[in-house]
Design a protein that fits this description.
49 residues; mainly alpha; 53% helix
Amino acid sequence: MNLPTLIGTLLVLAVFGTIVGRGIYNHKHGKRGCSCGGDCGSCSACRKK
């Protein structure tokens, strides 16, 4: 593997890690996306268990 390929691979992995890490952070802090259209009171997927 040459240097530009290695740098590109590391850049892609860093972006992927950031996206996954942010998703985990948001999930742990209750910032989940839902498909209820904003009417979360009647949405069983949005209520905490």
